[in-house]
Amino acid sequence: MTQQGVLIKGNNDGIIIYLNEQIEFAVILDELKEKFTNAYDFFKGASVTINPGKRIISPEEKMALINLCQEFELAGIKFETTPMVTPEKKKRDLSATEGNTLILKRTIRSGQRISYKGNVVIIGDVNPGAEVIAQGDVVVMGSLRGVVHAGAQGDTDAEVFALLLQPTQLRIAHCIARSPDGYLFKKKGKAEPEKARIRDGFIVIEGIED
Fold it and tell me: Potential cystine with 143: which of 93, 113, 164, 207 (Cβ 3.0-4.6 Å)?
């Protein structure tokens, strides 16, 4: 199976881009450009941190990454190495950087069920009647109007991201939010990308950069 050159994850500060040190830089740059192109509205305006891991990037490569991010209107570009984390958090982050992410470039339709032992990224919509279950994060680069369960094995750090977050039921670990008569989190005015996470034992909805 072909290795991914980059892995993109969201956190409270915006977006983190992990670079695979085993992949040539030119391949990484092409892959990153393709991801930005396929989800331009999702990435536009987001703060981005580039984590090269063990890769040593030259000043020219660093400038190429900055120029690419600016081309697609990402903001607050910075670089960092792998941070010091607790053993539990480190284990979760490493599993993601090792390719434990399922990427689906299609719409999940009513009656379809996606279940994965890791993170799930959907470049498309999740329609009413569809279900997405992940042991890690769920990222929907489109409208999320079905049922979603992140952190399905009890990971309370898991989060749900979507360009339009209107699920009929949303679960993170043991916490659940549902609506008996329609969609959760109905929007007024222009919809913006949002994320759901657990805070103080409850599911809360925030802007991507909150």
Answer: 164
If 0-12 CB within 10 Å is exposed, 13-18 middle and 19+ buried, where does residue 169 land? middle
The CB density around residue 13, as the number of other CB atoms within 10 Å, is: 15
Structure tokens at 193: 């990308």
Helix/strand/coil for 59: helix
What lies within 8 Å, CB to CB, of 103 at 6+ separation is 121, 122, 123
Instruction: Say what the pTM is.
Output: 0.53
Give domain 101-207's CATH architecture: 3 Solenoid (2.160)
Model pLDDT for residues 2-33, shown as the tens digit of each residue? 577 888 887 666 788 888 888 899 999 999 99
Cα gap 37→93, rounded to integer Å: 25
pLDDT averaged over every residue in the chain: 81
Q: Where are the domains of the chain?
A: 6-79, 101-207
List Cβ neighbours of 44 (8 Å cut-off, separation of 6 or more). Answer: 72, 73, 74
Strands 101-104 and 119-122: parallel
Q: One-letter amino acid identity for 33?
A: K
Distances (CA, A) of 183 to 123, 131, 161, 165: 21, 14, 16, 9
Farthest CA pair distance, the chain = 55
φ/ψ region of 79 (left if φ > 0, alpha if ψ in -120 to 50, else beta) reads beta
